[in-house]
């Protein structure tokens, strides 16, 4: 039994495969997100095109999608959060992190994706990169004439502040 690529812990054959193979439609935005990830792993490029919102298909680059799908080693999917996107909703958001290896380097794609339901079928519309969390520097600021925090014994302006 092959576990599903989407990380659900379910067998692929009963999780994402029915959607990717066109036997059923994904019932929610999250299910579509998971099946699209599995489609990248399975190199199911037609499914990726079919699940794009019809208004966004004109600028889709099939060859670039195929190259990314086939050129990457897909390492895992993590669903960070979902907003709406259930049966009966018109729109939904899914934030996810997809880890992959490209040209020997492990990379991370973090996106907040928007999905819309048209005639009972979910489609990927677009995505945005989440804004990084603002972090406040809590340590006191080092003055030019203060001792350097590196421990050299010199004044900051003559050491690390130079």
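^ structure tokens above, recovered residues below v
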């Amino acid at each position: 039994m092959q576990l599903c690529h989407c990380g659900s812990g379910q067998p692929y054959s009963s999780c994402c495969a029915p959607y990717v193979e066109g036997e059923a439609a994904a019932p929610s935005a999250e299910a579509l997100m998971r099946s699209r990830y599995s489609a990248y792993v399975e190199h199911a490029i037609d499914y990726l095109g079919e699940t794009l919102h019809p208004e966004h298909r004109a600028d889709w680059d099939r060859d670039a999608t195929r190259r990314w799908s086939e050129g990457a080693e897909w390492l895992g999917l993590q669903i960070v959060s979902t907003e709406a996107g259930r049966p009966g909703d018109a729109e939904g958001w899914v934030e996810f992190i997809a880890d992959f290896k490209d040209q020997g380097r492990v990379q991370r794609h973090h996106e907040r994706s928007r999905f819309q339901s048209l005639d009972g079928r979910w489609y990927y519309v677009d995505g945005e990169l989440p804004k990084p969390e603002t972090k406040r520097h809590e340590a006191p600021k080092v003055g030019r004439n203060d001792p350097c925090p590196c421990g050299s014994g010199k004044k900051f302006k003559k050491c690390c502040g130079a």
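The beta strands are 72-84, 91-102, 105-118, 121-128.
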